[in-house]
Write a structure and sequence with these properties.
Number of strands: 21
Structural class: alpha+beta
CATH topology of one domain: Vanillyl-alcohol Oxidase, Chain A, domain 3
CATH architecture of one domain: 3-Layer(aba) Sandwich
Strand order of the largest sheet: 17-14-16-15-19-20-18-21
Helix content: 25-40%
CATH class of one domain: Alpha Beta
Radius of gyration: 21 Å
CATH superfamily of one domain: FAD-linked oxidases, C-terminal domain
Number of helices: 15
């Protein structure tokens, strides 16, 4: 993230704004004061954490509230597995803190530099056919609403509010703390290897069922796929030494990938050969370590990303269609298609709402044209009822999305209640969620959260 005294730029570097003012909040009262001052001055407000979203979700010309300093662990109940933390703590820092208490996240994605508020607001998920996304671990949310008031949303006092706030796209208020349900710490054995692509795709269901965590990477123009499996083992963690970690994460995952990607950008006709080279270099690696260290990988190579959540049964057909589309149109694609799986959940705007889900992510190396490829992928996802990852590129609008979420209107009712004046709206939320609506017109019984 690039945050100066006057501007904010996302990690990918393509979204930038110059707010009227930037508030670096250190307390909840700082957040409340910022919202109330914005209301007095007729300005909108957005919160920003690590800036890892690929969308303009945090862009504003009003007041930008930086919550990075709200990064404390507030309470740990090890016996109940409940941990209350401030919203600006990063997943990396929180995972370290949890480990010190013998606890861990049930599931994580493969990037851990986001704030917990940002990761959950966009529906960050990880992989595991029987596991839900990170947001499903939230049991309570403390946020500052459009009036500048501090409110708590939980299953007892405000069940609709909680289900809306778990994946809120930043449209309900500024989250200042969350309470998470964690699990006892565990060790994973991670195996990365390659296998024939058709063989992997034909046996996806069996592979997902056989492992706690399974994902695959399908490289365009390559006949082999990279597979990644992570399973719990009753063994001590054996983290790699500094040299081994550099050889894997530095030399291969950073310098080799960056070099091959840059070569493909410079000479697009060479991409098929380069992709096959990447798969051949991948080989097999085995790691046994603390769960969060197995999940997360560093991101030193810049790229653009789109990701769609599809009904589980549609995942493999969609991947095959994407690969065929790349070949048919000759798109220059030197990043793999990433495929992951999660169980359904009940967050109102979760891309996995109400259905077991396969996530399909596509990428484009920094500086390469991505729009035609991403639009073609989105058309395939649309045909399968796909829902976009809220933190990654897409071209959807509220009109195209409303029918894909069975409880869309229930979310809008919560939004109208917590932010009746649209204090937390920006161009992105207006495009994807529509304007804030009058609760009376939404037609949801119990809009105050009693449903």
């Amino acid at each position: 993230m690039g945050l100066t005294d006057t501007t904010f730029t996302t990690w990918a570097g393509d979204e930038r704004c110059r707010p009227a003012r930037i508030v670096r909040a250190r307390t909840v009262d700082d957040v409340r004061d910022a919202v109330r001052a914005a209301a007095r001055d007729g300005l909108t407000v957005k919160a920003v954490g690590s800036g890892h979203s690929f969308t303009p979700a945090a862009m504003t010309d009003g007041v930008l509230v930086d919550i990075a300093a709200l990064d404390r662990v507030l309470d740990v109940d090890r016996e109940a597995g409940l941990v209350r933390v401030e919203a600006g703590i990063t997943i990396h820092a929180l995972a370290d803190a949890l480990a010190g208490h013998g606890l861990a996240f049930e599931n994580l994605g493969d990037i851990d530099r986001q704030t917990i508020a940002g990761a959950t607001a966009t529906g960050t998920h990880g992989t595991g056919g029987a596991l839900r996304n990170i947001s499903s671990q939230i049991v309570a949310v403390d946020l500052v609403d459009g009036h500048g008031d501090l409110v708590r949303l939980d299953a007892t006092t405000d069940p609709d509010g909680l289900r809306a706030a778990r994946v809120s796209v930043g449209a309900l208020g500024i989250v200042v703390a969350v309470t998470l349900r964690c699990v006892p710490a565990y060790v994973l054995r991670g195996v990365d290897t390659t296998a024939p692509l058709d063989e992997v795709l034909d046996a996806v269901d069996e592979r997902v069922a056989a492992h706690r965590h399974f994902e695959l990477y399908a490289f365009p123009h390559a006949r082999r796929a990279l597979t990644r499996t992570n399973d719990v083992v009753d063994e001590p963690a054996t983290p790699p030494g500094r040299v081994a970690r550099f050889l894997r994460q530095g030399l291969l995952e950073t310098y080799a990938l960056r070099g091959l990607s840059a070569a493909g950008r410079a000479v697009p006709p060479a991409i098929p050969t380069l992709n096959r080279t990447v798969v051949r270099l991948a080989g097999t690696t085995v790691r046994t370590d603390r769960s969060d260290r197995i999940f997360a990988s560093p991101r030193h190579v810049r790229f653009m990303e789109m990701e769609y959540a599809l009904p589980r049964a549609a995942t493999v057909p969609a991947v095959r269609e994407i690969l065929a589309t790349i070949d048919r149109h000759g798109y220059a694609v030197n990043f793999p298609i990433e495929v992951r799986f999660v169980a359904g959940d009940d967050a109102l705007l979760s891309p996995a709402h109400g259905r077991d889900t396969g996530y399909v992510a596509v990428h484009a190396y920094h500086g390469m044209e991505w729009r035609p490829y991403f639009r073609a992928v989105e058309a395939i996802a649309d045909a399968h009822g796909g829902r976009p990852h809220w933190g990654k590129r897409h071209f959807q609008t509220a009109g195209s999305l409303a029918g894909r979420y069975p409880e869309w209107d229930r979310f809008q009712a919560v939004r109208s209640r917590l932010d009746p004046e649209g204090r937390f709206a920006n161009a992105y939320t207006t495009q994807t969620l529509g304007p804030v609506r009058d609760t009376a017109r939404v037609g949801i019984a119990g809009a105050a959260g009693s449903a």
